[in-house]
Design a protein that fits this description.
This protein is of the alpha/beta class and 219 residues long. It is built from eight helices and seven strands, in the order ααβαβαββαβαααββ. Bound molecules: S-adenosylmethionine.
Length: 219
């Protein structure tokens, strides 16, 4: 099945709210736990989260790594507003900040000590821009962890995944999940992207029936 692009930025306020209210506990905490498992020596520094959405992952990182600060970047105003509210409510505004801009346009952030991104890449028309920016964003020797969906073989398979994991979810969330699966990349496509960007030291792992993870140190 060919990739079918979905809108890049999730800037409809209702869409952002439904996403913020959805339960991504298992996925998001799994992402944080994986980072800690892969990079146990990383305990302090500045982490950049590309496509941070409503801020649940930055919050989980801030709690898990109390000596880290996190900058979240998202191009959606409603998402960033929700993220700022959540961080304020958690009393973590001194360690988590947000920037509302497209990662492609990101400038003026000094290089960071680690970069993370969950579920952004499938939104991006040109994925090479993402890997390019990721590499530019970090200091040499920094860990990176990127996770996203992979594209199933057919629309029917995509629908079956939505039914399996989001059966009782609101229609907007189910629609976005389906469209995201169709817009996602296959493992082979990710491998080609890393090869083209000379990032072959990063490893790709398929961790379940719908997610891949890319991890490693950027030199
Ligand atoms: C599916 S959400 C994932 C949010 C978050 N990472 C999480 O896992 O909960 C994807 C997010 O990427 C944002 N996004 C899409 N394209 C972007 C871009 N070019 N620059 C910055 N953010 C972008 C969307 O607005 C949306 O909030």
């Amino acid at each position: 099945m060919e990739r079918i692009l979905e809108p890049e930025v999730m800037d409809d306020p209702e869409q952002a709210l439904v996403y913020a209210q959805a339960d991504f506990e298992q996925e998001n905490q799994g992402f944080v736990d994986r980072f800690r498992e892969y990079f146990p020596e990383f305990t302090e520094g500045h982490i950049l989260d590309l496509g941070c959405g409503p801020g649940d992952i930055p919050l989980r990182f801030a709690r898990a790594l109390p000596s880290c600060r996190i900058t979240g970047v998202d191009a959606s105003e409603p998402m960033v507003r929700l993220a700022e509210e959540a961080v304020q409510e958690a009393g973590l505004s001194s360690r988590i900040t947000f920037r509302c801009e497209r990662f492609q346009d990101l400038a003026g952030v000094s290089t960071v000590d680690a970069a993370i991104s969950n579920s952004l890449l499938h939104h991006v028309p040109n994925p090479l821009q993402f890997w390019h920016k990721l590499r530019l964003a970090v200091k040499p020797g920094s860990p990176v962890l990127v996770m996203d969906l992979f594209r199933p073989a057919s629309p029917e398979e995509a629908q079956a995944i939505v039914d399996r994991y989001a059966s009782g979810a609101p229609d907007i969330l189910r629609r976005d999940f389906y469209n995201s699966l169709l817009a996602a990349f296959t493992e082979d496509e990710i491998g080609s992207q890393l090869a083209r960007m000379n990032l072959t030291r990063l490893l790709i792992d398929v961790i379940d029936d719908r997610h891949w993870v890319v991890s490693g140190i950027i030199h």
